[in-house]
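Fold this sequence, please.
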Amino acid sequence: MTTLTKEQEQILDELFGPRTQTPEVCPPARAPDLLSTWLGLSGADLRQQLQALLAGKDGVERQVLAWLQRNPLDAAFEFLGGASLAFYLAEKDTNPRVKSYVDAFYYIATCASVGYADIYAATQAGRAVAALVMIVGPSITARATDRPA
């Protein structure tokens, strides 16, 4: 820290007026983290919400499995329909081969069975939906086509 001479203090007082008190040094404001900037919540808030979501996961999982066992064919069609809608929304403006919901349903239905189609995912979101269908789809389809016990 530099100190001023009496002459320098007098010149400053003439230019800006006398100082009534010495300025307090405030600590610099903490910059918001990336999550606060983009999502509007802090890392601690996000962690708390994820923990609450994971705490309720078991109940949701039991409900989904019970519904799947009661209505396997409905579950298969609703899963394929929902996945087709998600794929269509992800690909409609990017993928020239996805012009309608039917195109998306065709691709998703083949992903759940043989895995071949002349349509393919062009976006990351579309690839994620397709991967989920390729993993979960065959088991749901198998459950739907099983003979009742």
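The radius of gyration is 31 Å. Residues 72-145 form a domain with the Helix Hairpins fold (CATH 1.10.287.70).
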